[in-house]
Amino acid sequence: MVTRRILCLFVCVEQSYLPSDTLDGLKRLREKELEILRGTGVGERKTFERMYDYDKYNDLGDPDSKEELARPILGGKEHPYPRRCRTGRDRSDKDLLSEKRGSSVYVPRDEAFSEVKQRTIKTNLISSMLHALRSLHPSIIDNLPSTFTADTLSSMLQELIDNVAFPSFTAIDSLYQGGLPLSTPKNGIFQSFPQRIKNFFKAARDYILQFKTPKMIERDRFSWFRDDEFSRQTLAGLNPYSIQLVTV
Fold it and tell me: What is the DSSP string of 83-133?
C-alpha cells in the first residue's frame, strides 16, 4: 500500500497590508476578524471577548445609591470627551442614560494583563497601601479599629488625603530615591491584617520601603506636565506606552 504525505507549509510574513492590498487567501479571514473586533453594539461584554465597540462615559456616577452621586455623561456635544470601551451593563434605575457601575472594568482580551502581571500589580498595590498607612501620624494608627466597615474605610481614606501631602517635587522624588523607614505597628487595624502582610512588616523592619521609579519619570521627571503627555495618558489609560506610531 502506497501512502501519500502532503506537507502543508505555513509561512508567517512580518508585513502589514492595507485592506485593499490584502492577499487573496487572507481576505475572508481578515473580514471575519474585523467583524469580531467591531462587535455588535448589543449585550454585555464578557472577559473573554475581544470586541472594541465604544460608548460614552455614562458610568461615572451612582445615582441608584444617592442622588448626589449622579454625574454628567462625558462625550457628545455637551461634554466632548474621548470614548471608552463599551461594557453593555444594565441601565441605571433612576437615570436611563447611565449604566450601573460594575465590580470590574471590561478590557478586551488582547489588552488584558497576564496573570503574572496582575499578581505583580496586586503586590505593588499592597506595598503602596502600606506605604500610605505608614505615612499617617502614629496616633492615628493606634486609634484605628481592629475591624472596620465601609464608612470607617471611607473616613480612613479621607484621613490619608488630609494628612499625606507633598510640599515639593523633591518630596515626591524621595519616594523613589530615599524611601520610608518602617517599624512594625503593634496596635489597631494592623492586628487584623492577614499574616502575609504582617510578615511583610516584620521582614521590612529597620529597612526602607521604597517605590519603584515609573518608567515615565525615569525618562523625564516632568513629562507628565506637558499637554501632549497628558493627552497620551488620558487616551491610553493605565498603559500610555500602548500607543505607538502606526507604520505601513
Answer: -EE---PPBPSS-TTSBPPPSS----TTTSPPHHHHHHHHHHHHHHHHHHH
Is the separation of the CB atoms in 94 and 61 below 8 Å? no
Contact 44, 73 (CB under 8 A): no
Range of the domain at 51: 22-111
Domain count, the chain: 2
* Domain finish residue from 81, 111, 141: 111
Q: Rg of the chain over CA atoms, in angstroms?
A: 25
Q: Enumerate residues 6+ apart whose C-beta is below 8 A from 40.
A: 51, 53
- Total-model pTM: 0.48
Task: Please write the tens of the pLDDT for every residue from 38-63.
Answer: 888 888 998 888 888 889 999 888 89
CA atoms within 13 Å, Cβ hemisphere of 2: 1
